[in-house]
Amino acid sequence: MPQEKRIVETVKTGIIDGIQGTGEVVDAAISTVSGTLVNTIKSTGAVGAALTGTVSDVLRGAILGTAHVGADIGGAAKGGVIGVIRGTAEVGVEATESIGAGAQAVVKSAAEVGGDLGSAARSAVEGSIAGAKELGLQAEEAASAAASGAIKGAGEVSAAAVDEVRRAVTGVIGGVKVVVKQPFKSEKRKAS
Known about the structure:
This protein is mainly alpha-helical. It has one domain (2-191).
């Protein structure tokens, strides 16, 4: 637990400093998230569940720091997911699972700070597409992982959040048709 809290606080502080220094949310999120991930993975050797936990902590810190200074959470979501893709690529880790964990953390953290969940989720998907294209990865696969992770995160908030996030991440985003992997259904839909 102390490691988790330290990562969240380190990223939160880095994001606050970056945004206050430049006013640019997306760039602050990209550099802080990717840098923290690379350093943490190299120092701990995190893989599997430890890696997805680290990704979640890093993105939670990014959203909390952004909200702290009253900046755009959507920009932090987009930049944060790009940072996850860059960071995992730099250390040679497969990104898909990390993208999903990142989008899940973005939505849960946006709910924690009273942010717009649909906007945060859509921004996370946009970040996954931009990051994938930048590194020559499959944009459709990255978008699907982000959308599915965002809906999973919304499921930890409420059924209404699932519906809101599903609407926000379904369809064509950034020129990519986003396909949500099942079985993410809200309780309301299961009953009908």
